[in-house]
Amino acid sequence: MLVLGIETSCDECAAAVVEDGTAIRSNVVATQIPFHARWGGVVPEIASRTHTEWIDATVREALDGAGLAAGDVDAVAATAEPGLLGSLLVGLTFGKAFAWTRGIPFVPVNHLHAHLYAARLGTGRSDGSKDSPFAGSPPYPYLGLLVSGGHSMVCRVDDFDQITTLGTTLDDAAGEAFDKVGKHYGLPYPAGKYVDEMAKAGNEDAFRFPMPNLHKNGRPSDMSFSGLKNAVINQRETFRQRTRSAKEAENAGETADVIASFQKAAVKILLRALFRAVDDTGITTVVAGGGVAANSYLRARLAERADIHAVFPPPELCGDNGAMVAGFAYHKLRGGSGAAL
Fold this sequence. Notes:
- By secondary structure, the chain is an alpha/beta fold.
- The chain contains 11 helices and 11 strands.
- It has 2 domains: 2-134 and 318-340, 2-Layer Sandwich (Nucleotidyltransferase, domain 5), CATH 3.30.420.40; 142-313, Nucleotidyltransferase, domain 5 (2-Layer Sandwich), CATH 3.30.420.40.
- The strands form 2 sheets. It has a 6-stranded mixed β-sheet, sandwiched between helices. The protein has a 5-stranded mixed β-sheet with strand order 8-7-6-9-10, with helices on both faces.
- Helix 5 runs parallel beside helix 7 (226-234) and helix 9 packs across helix 10.
């Protein structure tokens, strides 16, 4: 079954064709980053208008890349929630019209569910071979770690669409904290990959930023990033480890130390929540998804737990993309959730 997946929940205009839920035939992501970078974040009006201008060409490119005509597609899927309302409407409207004119099923997809499905897609094995499914399709149940610019959560996944939230951020998402801290210290938008790279040149122990205390009313796997963000931006001197003079710190590259210490604290918050879920459920397989899942430090720290089997999507599938939407929709169709419009 060939499914066309459309993703327009935020600022990426994406379309892909996936066969039988795993084999990616094409995957096109038209990024709007240059339009939003000057503002240091996504401007909803710009995002929705740009989707309107780009959606037709993006879908055509995805079909061409798969070697297909429009009539060869068996079903269409589009992200329905959550996301920016105007952006979502563009993808939903286009997808529904595409399906209706051809008399094929249309499937609305939850953006978060799609991110947690991304690691089950197949562009090839993790060793680089292209003739087998991606070597990261674990059996259910497993724990999901969803970390992106808009969402941070730990959940239990019992089937592709049976997802129970065990903990979530009570304020900012991890990706948002990365972007706001990066913006304050002059890094380009979006800041995630620049934080990852700059941190490699810094001393992660130069600052000891605080961990949130959420024991009052929250779940054990809840998390918070607003306090960390505020500490890094407004109160960093309070948390400096007095191991060298200010002049020495300046000469050694102060910003890299701040960024490295921030990244260490942010990942520690994420993994504390995740490890609590591992202890509570006894489930030791973890599947990650979302843009922050591409972070090399997060991957390395999680790999240190020999008792945990961690599965990450390829970096190109961590961010928003149409392939995860199409792959997830295939299983909804097999369960009868799609309907011809």
